[in-house]
Design brief:
540 residues; mainly alpha; 19 helices; 60% helix; globular
């Protein structure tokens, strides 16, 4: 199972990179992409897969808190996988002599990479160096060379891979079910059931804009609202019960393939993540047939093309990915870095995902159909592991808006949820264990405009966060990270207040200029609002 799971995880990662091309501007993104391509070339290697997981977490840390819901969820999955890998390696290497040998081999193997990390650290710590793109590119290239020297051209280290999948699969299943049900809970609010503003209605109307056969009558809108909610509740329930597991896979594949058609950046990326996770939901009786189907498809392709697909297919996959990325880069070069260009580039990634998604989803369904008369028990059972702690992290993340913490990335994607002020949930009420949502401000005016959505978006928050009302915490983030003079008027506790910073001298609340502690800056992100007097409109 391990090589297949590693392959699917790597392919899902490439889909993420096609969906959000911001990684091209960061050395963390290049490291992740390079490690992912190495896994595609040799999925049996646990060392390569571990590098993918580690660099995915590094890339996530660099972007936090401004990440989509599903990428934060993937980070929790990757943290789980990393903890399990550490546990498996630890159990296989008990005793000081074994650990000493492993550490020596590790240092020797990654010595060039460690030297490259040192060069990159010097570059990042130097005051003027980050302004030199040529030097930054050179240090990043040395990093990639060091990683390639450590991982490429060596026999695959496959020991422990099957043990990792067997131990991690039950934990990832639980996490997937929890996220599904958090998405349902957050949608149980008055505005999600309002056909005028419901995200279910908005997504349906958007898709009808380029699929003219879709009806937009009231009954169709209501079906989209209630149907999506019902499916998000029913799919994980069906997956949990052995007798209904095939129906869960069937509904999940069709539902997420359909959703991925929507042009919003990130939706097909979420579908790719779930399709890779569905592999872990396949029963033991289905897996042999699934592997035979894959081998038959590869054999058919090999006969048709005459190529040795064991050698060429991974290279073709990476080649298609690079063609997609280069096409997206050309779009930005020719059309400019705008929201409209982002949507065009996103469609390029979508068509590559569509091929992968239809193929993988079809294989899941065909394998389930062939084994429909067989028992539907999973091939592995839960075992004790420290990685189960991450399940609590997943639960706590969905709980965060209800205890006064963050309102973004809390598994409230496309839910119309509003927990601030009076809230709009049908039955949940906020308990302010933390006071962030109590201290709201309205930014009346600022010069320069702190809320101006840049014409050249470079980060997710440029797309996902509009509005002038938000917690004081976010105002402090905006002011403390702004460089240069600033004049603004904001309303707090019902009173207008002035803030001026000119030439380093501050008039007004000096606390706004204090940098937010890094652990809070990375964890908390709050939604912005235009008003609390009307319905909550659809956001990501």
């Amino acid at each position: 199972m391990f090589p297949w799971f590693a392959s699917l995880w790597a392919l899902a990662t490439l889909v993420h990179q096609l969906s959000f091309t911001f990684w091209l501007q960061t050395w963390e993104g290049w490291l992740l992409t390079f490690a992912t391509c190495l896994v595609v070339l040799e999925p049996r290697c646990l060392v390569r897969f571990s590098a993918l997981i580690l660099f995915s977490l590094l890339n996530l840390w660099h972007k936090l808190p401004f990440v989509p819901n599903h990428m934060l969820f993937e980070g929790m999955l990757n943290l789980t996988i990393l903890l399990v890998i550490c546990g498996v390696v630890g159990r296989r290497s008990l005793g000081f002599p074994a650990w000493s040998r492993i550490l020596r081999e590790f240092v020797v193997r990654f010595r060039l990479f460690f030297l490259a990390c040192g060069a990159k650290a010097v570059f990042l710590l130097a005051t003027e160096a980050p302004r030199n793109p040529a030097l930054g590119g050179a240090t990043s290239a040395i990093l990639l060379m060091g990683l390639g020297q450590a991982l490429a051209g060596r026999p695959p280290q496959s020991r422990g891979g099957e043990e990792v999948v067997a131990e991690v699969a039950p934990i990832l299943r639980v996490q997937a079910v929890v996220v599904y049900w958090w998405a349902v809970i957050q949608k149980l609010n008055h505005d999600y059931f309002n056909p005028e503003v419901s995200c279910g209605a908005v997504l349906h109307r958007d898709m009808a804009g380029f699929l003219p056969f879709l009806p937009t009558a009231e009954w169709a809108i209501c079906l989209a609202i209630y149907g999506s909610l019902a499916l998000e509740f029913v799919i994980p329930l069906l997956l949990l019960l052995p007798k209904t597991r095939p129906f869960g896979i069937f509904l999940g594949v069709l539902f997420h393939l359909w959703l991925s058609i929507h042009p919003a950046g990130g939706i097909y990326s979420f579908s790719a993540l779930l399709f890779a996770l569905y592999f872990l939901f396949l029963p033991a009786s289905v897996l042999p047939g699934w592997e035979r189907l894959m081998e038959r498809q590869l054999s058919w392709l090999q006969k048709r093309t005459g190529f040795s697909l064991a050698v060429w297919l991974p290279r073709i996959v990476i080649g298609l990915f690079l063609v997609g990325v280069l096409s997206q880069a050309m779009c930005y070069t020719v059309l400019g870095r705008t929201r409209e260009t982002f949507e065009v580039a996103n469609r390029i990634g979508f068509w590559l995902w569509a091929v992968f998604g239809v193929w993988l989803g079809g294989t899941h369904l065909a394998a389930m159909w062939q084994a429909r008369e067989e028992p539907m028990e999973w091939p592995n059972r839960p075992v004790g592991s420290v990685a189960w702690v991450v399940v609590l992290l997943v639960i706590g993340n969905g709980l965060s808006p209800w205890i006064g913490l963050k309102t973004q990335t809390c598994f409230s994607m496309y839910s119309n949820l509003r927990s601030e002020a009076f809230g709009n949930h049908l039955f949940l009420e906020r308990i302010d264990l933390f006071g962030y949502q109590l201290d709201l401000v309205e930014l009346v005016a600022s010069e320069p405009d702190l809320l101006d959505p840049t014409g050249s978006p470079t980060r997710l928050q440029h797309f996902a966060n509009t509005g002038r009302i938000f917690p004081y915490f976010e105002l402090r983030r905006l002011v403390s990270e702004h460089r240069g003079d600033l004049r603004m008027t904001y309303r707090r506790y019902g009173e207008d207040q002035e803030f001026v910073r000119r030439g380093g001298f501050v008039t007004g609340d000096e606390r706004l200029t204090e940098p937010i502690p890094w652990w809070l800056r990375k964890v908390l992100w709050f939604r912005r609002h235009e008003t609390f007097s009307g319905p909550m409109h659809c956001t990501h």
